[in-house]
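ugh ok fine here u go
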Amino acid sequence: MPNFSVNVPQLSSLYSTPKLKRGGTNMNLCADQVFDKMLLWRDMATKMKFPLCPAAELPGLRRSNNKRRSRRMISCRAAGADGGRVAVGDDVFSVTTSSKYEVDYLGQSTKGDLNLKLDPLQSFGDGQATLEGPIEEVARTEAQAAENLIRELGIQGPFSAQHSPRGIFCSRTLNLRSISAIGYDMDYTLMHYNVMAWEGKAYDYCMENLKSMGFPVDGLAFDPELVIRGLMIDKEKGNLVKADRFGYVKRAMHGTKMLSNKAVSEIYGRELVDLRNQSRWEFLNTFFSVSEALAYAQMVDRLDDGCISADLGTLDYKGLYKAVAKALFRAHVEGQLKSEIMSKPELFVEPDPELPLALLDQKEAGKKLLLITNSDYHYTDKMMKHSFNKFLPNDMDWRDLFDMVIVSARKPEFFQMSHPLYEVVTGEGLMRPCFKAETGGLYSGGSAQMIESSLNVHGDEILYVGDHIYTDVSVSKVHLRWRTALICRELEEEYKALIGSRGHREELIELINQKEVVGDLFNQLRLALQRRSKGRPAQTLAATNLDDQELTETMQKLLIVMQRLDDKIGLMLESDGELFNKRWGFLSRAGLWDKSHLMRQIEKYADIYTSRVSNFLNYTPFMYFRSQEQSLAHDSPLQDAGIEN
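structure:
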């Protein structure tokens, strides 16, 4: 059996050397980062029965005077006050239980936090003096030492990962230590499909079904660039639209043809998108929506061109949507699509070797892991075996990761009401009715309340992770007060596109600021001219004394400059975000500064969001996610000019 020190490089090879910033939040929280990693390694060492070792035996730690403090932080055995050795682990630490938790200054439960059993200052020998004195000075010193150590260990911590395409971003503060159970959706959450392959195949089956119904589909092809997640289908007008956080439509496409700003204003200038009106609006929540929206847009073109036979009856845009939705539904229900995927999963699934390891960390940290999917048992078992088993250690099976598996869950109803519960008792999927779920079981149907009762965990003790903003995230939060995480793979491409667009946006903002300066002068001169025409003095004596010709010529020049600026700014705004999608721009933004409607939904219902589940690997199961400061419209003047008394 190899000792623990030999395996440290294997663990750290999952990470690259971090580039941490000095000062600010990174310095203050770096000690948390090191402590969480050490705690994770301690748990792994205990479970795998590796002997713990002193710091000197850890590979990669250089012996030098300026590293002495960081080496002391990782020492696996601390010197007691009497010079002897004290034990580690359970003899030193205790865990806050659900019956003794408190609420911290950010409103989070302290359940799962570690506490010292011994007197804090008596636990250290010569280190006692370093913990005495004003906490501001102690924290500054220890944060610097923590930063040094985490760099030595080669760990990519959360605060370097956060500034990357694979960061985990926090909308509402979440103490992961207080989470007792983590539930996962499967499709596009634990398993990411190749969109061109999966949605392309769904589109093909949809087209075949439409053709069998009598619709003209010849010459049509799958084009995923035509639509993005977060758009809405206007079933009354045959449009796809992108709205801002308030519901105002910013971009629109009729069929497959983008509408001008003027046309958008004429159609939607006096109304807001209201997703509660489900008879009119269909929100594109996930990748699964891509094939449906694309097929609908193409069929709108065929309807407008008069290509749809009268034999199909009188069709409006809403009736056309029903036909497309029915054709795609048949593709899913009749089983041909999933049967083809199950026969060759390697063509449709993009493997993620780090994902099973992230779940293994969570399980070994004491989290109860749940799989809750709408997919049936045969599809779930086949796809999970393909995606997980080859990446798990010691011949583990994917089922070994989960304390409970629910297939055919019928979300979102699963979170809202109770359905009959069946236990899957054979590998062929044979089921029998049951009335209570047990740990380790595999079930079909049931309800979220049943899970809470069986596991004795409730409400905000559970984190649910999924890719569907409504079916997974919104309903579980609103009805059960579960904590929530949204998986949005497009974040990685959007992050890169935002970085690539920095120069474009900086130039655009500079032009807008210049127009504001020029426009302010123009407006003041226009007011002076208005007052002069009414025989009243201008705003100031100098403005009143301006020569008529000088006033007029200055205004003419300013107006020409503003008109040219408008032309330039308009073109740049239209191209803003084209690095992500040429038609719709960025996923999370609507316009230069505002958030998209999708982003508003994410902020409202998802406590954290990220591009893939394996991103948890950089954050440890003990992470305390803190939401960022939210800026307000009046913050900027206060920061720039200071508050005047």
